[in-house]
Structures are given as C-alpha cells and as structure tokens.
Specification:
Layout (H helix, E strand, L loop, with lengths): L2 H17 L11 E6 L6 E9 L2 E10 L2 H14 L4 H15 L26 H22 L1
Antiparallel strand pairs: 1-2, 2-3
C-alpha cells in the first residue's frame, strides 16, 4: 500500500472515532475521573465499572479536539474486558508509542495504534494521552477504595 494511501487510512480511522466515538456517555454506579489538558482546554470525564480486577464497562464524555476524542474512543475499545494490570501495560505502551518509541505490543492497542503519528507533533501528545491518564487514575482510585 502506498504511503499516501496508508496515511489516508490512518486519518479516516481517527476521524471516524472522533465523529462517532465508541462508549460515549456517563455510567451510573461507576468510578468517575475527570481530567483536563490546560494547554488546549480538552476535558474528559471517564466512568469505569470494575468487576473484581476487570474493566466491565467504560464510558467517556467531555469536550476535546479530534485527537483527544478519537484517543478516548480507541482507549475504551482497547481496555474493555481487560484486567487492571493489562490496562496499565497498554497505557504504558501507548504513552511510549506517542513519544516515538516502538514496541512489539503496539498491535495490542487496536485502533489506538493509528495514533503513533502523534509523536511527530509533540504539542498533541497531551491530547492523545489524556484518556489513557484518566484510566490509570481510575484504576488507582479503585485500588485505593478496595483497601
């Protein structure tokens, strides 16, 4: 596939997740985390339900740019049904990927792997990682509440 065709595919997937985000909304009886990116104004409210150590349901709401919204949509797809440790590992892979570090585990990110190109735009890294930072905070909060 030609490079321009591949770039077009990446842009189409990102645009689709932004315009038609998956798991968009607010969950009742869930762990809630809200984060914002002060540099651009993106805000995400993440709702997560846990079943033991598993993410049993997840949703997000908020106001953000295309990258932020697409990343949140992709993240919710990637983490649903996973254990907290699996999610934390994915968040680490994602964070390194958007900073330009390659990993064999990137394929585990699903559509979120399409955001690897964000590494070329350092000012957009915070947009891309906002939802992933929120899921890490939700897991930390869940663990703290179990004690």
């Amino acid at each position: 596939m030609a490079l321009s065709s591949l770039n077009s595919l990446y842009m189409a997937v990102v645009a689709d997740h932004s315009k038609n985000p998956h798991h968009h909304g607010v969950l009742e009886n869930a762990e809630h985390v809200q984060l914002n990116n002060p540099t651009c104004g993106d805000v995400i409210s993440l709702s997560v339900r846990f079943d033991g150590d598993y993410i049993s349901d997840i949703a997000f709401a908020g106001d953000g740019c295309t990258i932020s919204t697409a990343s949140a949509s992709m993240m919710t797809d990637a983490v649903l049904g996973k254990t907290c440790s699996e999610v934390l590992a994915l968040a680490d892979v994602f964070s390194k990927m958007v900073q330009g570090e390659k990993s064999a585990d990137q394929e585990k990110l699903g559509d979120a792997e399409f955001l690897a190109g964000v590494s070329k735009f350092p000012q957009r890294i915070k947009c891309a990682t906002l939802a992933w930072n929120a899921i890490k905070m939700a897991i930390e909060s869940q663990k703290a509440n179990k004690k």
